[in-house]
Amino acid sequence: MNLFSLLDQLSAVDASPDAAPRRQLLRQLGRAGARAAVAALPMALALPAHATPTDTSLDGIRILLQLEDLLVAFYTQALAAPALTASIPTAQRPDFERLLIQQQNHAGFWRSVLSAAGITPPPVRPASGYDFSGRRSNLANPELFPGVMTNYDAFLQLAQQLEDASASIYLGQISAFTNDKQLLEATLRLQIVKARHASHVRTLRRTTAAVASAVKSWPSKVDPAPSPAIVVPSPAGGTAAPVSIYSFEAKETQVVSGTNEVPFLGVLTGPTAVQYSALSEAFDEPLPTRQATALLEIFG
Fold it and tell me: Cβ(221)–Cβ(281) under 8 Å?
């Protein structure tokens, strides 16, 4: 949500006469700059927060918080699963402990944003409330991801897909924050962290898994297809068959505008020459909201 807009809304709600000086101060702070506005938030929240932001940023925050809660549950379950932890190389356990801490921090950040806006964040679901077998806590349903909490290779394969999807989901929500520079910057920074998480998990699959996978450090068309794969509704809609999350990463070119492509091959020559196709495909692509929501529902 736009913090300036929020401050104006809070300052406009009906309140006791004693709050009038605060309402005027909030109007002034709304024009004083982002730093002053943020500093004033605790005082602003002392007012009756009858106004609720209607910006699309609220929807974006909720999706990203759901994503972070899911990842917290994923790594919490993994680190508490005896059979899985017994198969994780001792040197690798700190990696997943660090990932868990960072996901917890991300979830805490989005909850603090909601609280600062006068919106009660959703309660934290226990990790046991998620089912990463894909059965949705119903044993009558087929097990979509067998062995994910008992077998290290199966766990890494699902971890890679979730982390890859996370980077894409963050990109897919960028447009929700275009009117709020602070949240836009935070979202972009967190998206970079997600991409690093995904790259690290891919490196683990390539170097430490019992069955080494020839995956690159970024989604590539030459990666072996994950099996089982996370599938989401096709962008074609209707009765079209579900598609892999990697179908949204199929771009081999990057466009500046319209049909004008970034000329990697022409620009990066001589001593700076690189595999231009690899550079182009290394850019993350956004996962649309519809597909992101469907992915989150698989495990929730």
Answer: yes
Residue whose structure tokens are 């006469």: 17
Say which DSSP state 178 is in. T
- Find the helix packing angle between 20-30 and 3-12, rounded to 10°: 160
pLDDT tens by residue, the chain, 300 residues: 343 343 344 334 333 333 333 333 334 333 333 333 333 333 333 333 333 333 478 999 999 999 999 999 999 999 999 999 999 999 999 999 999 999 999 999 999 999 998 999 999 999 999 999 999 888 889 999 999 999 999 999 999 999 999 999 999 999 999 888 889 999 999 999 999 999 999 999 988 766 667 888 888 888 888 999 999 999 998 899 999 999 886 555 555 556 666 555 555 556 555 555 555 555 668 899 999 999 999 998
In whole angstroms, give the CA distance from residue 116 to residue 110: 10
Residue with tokens 């231009």: 276
Domain spans in the chain, listed from the N-terminal domain onward: 3-44, 57-233+286-299, 251-281
Residues 6+ positions from 161 with CB-CB distance below 8 Å? 226, 229, 230, 245
CATH of span 57-233+286-299: 1.20.1260.10
113: tokens are 């944003």
